[in-house]
Amino acid sequence: MTISAQSPVHLTFVGGGHLAQAIISGILSSTSAWTLQCDIAVTARRSEHIQELRSRYQQLLVTDNNLDQRIWQAARRSQRSSPHDHPTPPIVFICTRPADVPTVAKQLAPTLASFDPSVRPTVVTMCPGITVSQLQDWLPTGTAIVRSMPNTPVEFRQGATGLFASEDATLRVNHVKIVLEEVSPLVTIVPDESMLDVVAAVSGSGPAHFFFVIESMVAAAESMGLSREAAEPLVIQSCLGAGYLARASSKPVVTLRKEVCVPGGSTEKAISHLDQSGVQELFKVAIQKSLDANLKMRFC
User: Fold this and answer.
1) What would the mean pLDDT of 72-77 be, rounded to a whole number?
2) Which residue in 55, 73, 176, 280 has the most C-beta neighbors within 10 A?
3) What is the DSSP-derived secondary structure letter of residue 202?
4) Euclidean distance between CA atoms 49 and 43, whole angstroms
5) pLDDT confidence bin for 80, thresholds 50/70/90
6) What is the CATH topology of the domain spanning 10-191?
């Protein structure tokens, strides 16, 4: 399923934090045809946050009330004004902290229930741990639910995102995928919900791992006399270049790594030291700890 350029699309972001703003900015700066018909509303709680959002997005509906009738009237209008027999249903992104998701979902439930099931908004969460089963307990029966796990590079339209769809959302998950592709060049739909928590541990937390590696390499360079001003750009560009090469090349990553490691050379000695020090096992343990923490959220 695609999003028609002739059909208005209504998006609501509950929670106007960095993640929501990154997606909104990506949509507003997009040249994709469907975004020209996009109607966006965003909610936030703090007054200073509201003012910031209104200043930044003057063309959007910004409110502190998740049940603001203007949001839901616009969502209904998007269905009535569509020239298609099967318009794209509205999408509600819950972009709050995991601990706030139950409250928000229960708050929205009566409003969502007032929609005909065929055009009821698709609900998308953007946090680890909260399962489809839990969301189904809080939302009206039959609501299309998509769990998503983006990462922070969406701020610069370079995210990596995993999706999992409930049975009710199997025909709608591609709508969510299309929206998120505006800020995430890679959007992967996983068939097993448990794998989304692994995605959260790998790519959701992944930027922090790479930042830590960058920090460590820069610190090493500084200890050897290279200034931070010189070292940091070199390390960051090396990271960017390696990522680009890994994505663009048809060769496996292990082959690319071996091609840099000339037998007996300095790079081989460095990688051999990391290998003998158990770095791969350390990454495995670190990612497992992240996964364990994500799973604990299921019982919050």
Assistant:
1) 91
2) 176
3) I
4) 9
5) low
6) Rossmann fold (3.40.50)
Q: How far apart are CA 46 and CA 197, in angstroms?
A: 30
Helix axes 253-260, 228-248, angle to 10 degrees: 130
- 35 — alpha (psi -120 to 50), left (phi > 0) or beta? alpha
Bridge pairing between strands 145-149 and 160-165: antiparallel
Q: How far apart are CA 126 and CA 262, in angstroms?
A: 43
Annotate 110-134 with b (16+ C-beta within 10 A) or e (fewer): ebbeebeeebbbbbbbbbbbbbbeb
216, burial (CB in 10 Å: exposed 0-12, middle 13-18, buried 19+): exposed
Residues 214-259: pLDDT tens digits? Answer: 999 999 999 999 999 999 999 999 999 999 999 999 999 999 999 9
Intrachain domains 10-191 and 205-297 with the same fold: no
Domain coordinates of the chain in residue numbers?
10-191, 205-297
Homologous superfamily in CATH for domain 205-297: ProC C-terminal domain-like (1.10.3730.10)
Task: Considering only residues 251 and 86, tell me which one the structure prediction assigns the higher pLDDT.
Answer: 251
